[in-house]
Amino acid sequence: MTNGRTSGRTNGERNGGNGGNGGAQAWHATGDLAARYADGSLPEPDAWSLEKHLEFCASCASRVSAAVRGSAAGPVLAEVRDAVLREALPRTTEERASVTDSGTVSVPDSVRSAAALRATPELGPAGLGPRAAGPWTTPGPKTAGPEATPGPKIAGPGAGLRPN
Amino acid sequence: MGGHRETDGEDAALLRALSAGDPAALADLYDRHAGWLHARLTRRCADPEVVREVLQDTFVTVWRSAAGHRGQEAGGWLWTIAARRLVDARRAQERAARVAGPPLEAEPADRYDTGAAPSAEERVLAGLEYGDVGTALDRISPELREVLRATVVDGLSTREAARLLGIPEGTVKSRARRARAELRTALAQLNPTPAGGPA
Fold first, then answer.
1. β partners of residue A29
2. pTM passes above 0.95
3. B138 and chain A in contact, CB less than 8 A
4. Which residues 6+ apart lie within 8 Å of B90 measured at CB?
5. Hey, are the CB atoms on B21 and A43 less than 8 Å from each other?
6. CA B177 to chain centre
């Protein structure tokens, strides 16, 4: 804490150093702040501050997301997660994956891991890989290979999503 | 500090894996960001079904357009998509309900332009974590505050903010102008050197 006026207000913490983002980078949300944001009790101005911070701080984003999962929104988040992953894994690959159960067709790793990811956090890890164990675990090493090849950046629909 | 940087790096790696079509990366990205996005959307939309649809739509969009990611922070990128999806959802709702009632009364517009983030608002953002700005924000009226939130915090254009809030664009502009003026006044009363940094 460097500023007495702020200490009680947002209940964040300062770790000093790194001025990569105008000094804001050094501030991080405490568990209490995350919990109050998650349960909706954080006053609006404090919430704004946190929200802007979460846009560029992945670790605080993870912390707050975990707090929200532990709130009343948990079941909805799990359902949407399932729906999103279902969308990401088209029907055709699902069918291909089911063929493998008969033991003859080999399936790409990405398809196999995607099927495992279906497990929502509520269902527990149950023999699935570490990344299927749910968001409460620290992300392990990537199981699928091609992450180091970002591919060509094209001006797709995402390009139009930037604010003016 | 190192841990935070590592997490940021992991986000970048996730986005690269996402571009390469790795569904596991989508799951990780969801676990990392969906919670706070849900909470943020919930603060802006009282209908839980809309929030749910917007959240789902956001991650499906991310999955389909990961190649369009331009290198910005994952959280900011996700929020940009989510905010626009929320605006779209509101517009659809409004269209459906347009049968009832005349359009909202417009307030006189001014030259306020959200296209190029005015420096006064940048200063507000820079100072948000300092108590004075929070106190000042508490003092302005809710309808002014929601306009500030939409334009300054959420990064929406005037048109998008109008759709989100269900008010005419001219009203967004005039309220933003009033909000800035009132903030300045409130800050001046609280502290002669308000939002520039820790005193």
1. A12
2. no
3. yes
4. B45, B50, B163, B164, B166
5. no
6. 18
